[in-house]
Amino acid sequence: MIFGACETYVSDNRIRGKKNLDIEVKGGKRRQLMNITIEIHYISNSKILQKGSFPLRGRKPEQVALQFWKDIKREMSHELELEEVIAAGENITDLVKDLERKELLLFEGE
Hints:
Helices cover 29% and strands 42% of the residues. With 110 residues, it is of the alpha+beta class. It has a six-stranded antiparallel sheet. A two-stranded antiparallel sheet has the order 3-4. Helix 1 (61-75) crosses helix 2 (93-109).
């Protein structure tokens, strides 16, 4: 699970949930992490936008976005359709979908 600041919006822009954790404690010192803002637009029963700020921790933005998408799907009890993924203002939807496809193929091959 990825920890970060996270907000969920439904189509009428009400905030549905919020999580916060954007500081890491190392050696007793608090420091700000290098974060990336990710927006995931998807369809459930309506159009939904979830966005959050997540620490990169040496990972690529599409890897962080894919984990965020997996966490969203795990929390929902029904089928979801990914529409768009924006990281730091850049559309990375195709990168996330390709990465998800590769992981599924790897999982099926085991």
